[in-house]
Amino acid sequence: MKIIPSSRKNRDIAVAIIFLAVIALNVWLLSWLSAHYNLTISSTEGGEVTTPGEGTFTYDEGTVVNLVAEAEEGYYFVNWAGDVSAITDVNADATSITMNGHYSINAKFAQEIRDWYDLDDIRDNLGGTYILMNDLDSTTEGYSLLAGPTANNATGWHPIGTYSSQFTGTFDGKEYQIEDLFINRPSGWFVGLFGIIDEGGQIEDVGVVNATVTGDKYVGGLVGRNEGTVTTSYFTGNVTGRSPVGGLVGSSYGTVSNSYSSGKVNGGGGVGGLVGYNYYGTVSNSYFTGNVTGDPFAFVGGLLGYNKGGTVNNSYSSGGVDGIYAVGGLVGANEGNVSNSFWDTETSGQATSDGGTGKNTTGMQDILTFLGAGWDIIVVYNPNDRDTGCIWNIINGVTYPFLSWEP
After folding, report:
1. Which end of the chain is more exposed for a tag (fewer CB within 10 A), N or C?
2. 344: helix, strand or coil
């Protein structure tokens, strides 16, 4: 039998011990790394996260961490943003998150709008985040001074956002209405509740109702000129201007979606029931009812006056249209793309349009017209019973399509 020298034996034992220790250390490190996750928490202006606080925290895998966000006075908690898939309720200021990975989350707050003074203050921070907390009307504090017929030397409301200082923030109407708005600025440019929305600016879930808006160029009931996003919003009332003029938006270089306009729209040219000029923008899932008149110039349409390089889809107009040159039931003049969109040849008084498909009233109230064009639409049997699982609802044979979110 061969005998291994003691020194060699000891060396082999030492190597084996080191090897096993390295393996154990690696196993421990892998176990530690896989079982511990970082949670990074921050907040926007207007509040803070009080539980567990703000910064970076480390938790064991599977730990349920309570989250509490508190708004400052005059602000409102909106939601949690970021890596929110593990948060129980992203819209609740008190909720929890289960740690199954590394997460970075942000508590978002918005400044509250409760009266006309609050609305007017938006112009002091055009990049802020705002949320409407209730309806505003002629009885709301600040109306006579800021938004009524006697306000600002009888010129009414001063539009938010100018050519040199555009609105770049976010305005969430929370499905409330701004009523009785009065603007009388016949020589004014960029006229509407908002004058100009810059790229990145957003307006959503708000209605401007029973309004009278008068301007010269870039005139719209909600926005004079849009370079951002307008969605799930509406206008009812009267809009008058020279060019371009739209019931909801005067001119749009951005996005207008899931919105509608109803009322009277009058202009010299580039006049549309929803949007006056659509410059390389997108209009989708929107409609107009009411009356559009253009005189003495051109480009008058039920939905759009002039579509310059823009895209229009899944939209319609049932409004009356009257003009002199380049007049259409849906679009007055089109140099872009119009698809899956319609106008009522009877109610509009127009047999032609530069884009879109004309249907009689019966066809405009038939779901098959819109299903055949690929619309996300479903039949309901009562206008108060909405199916919000689809963008559009219709009472077949009775109504035109209407947006499922409408009030």
Report:
1. N
2. strand
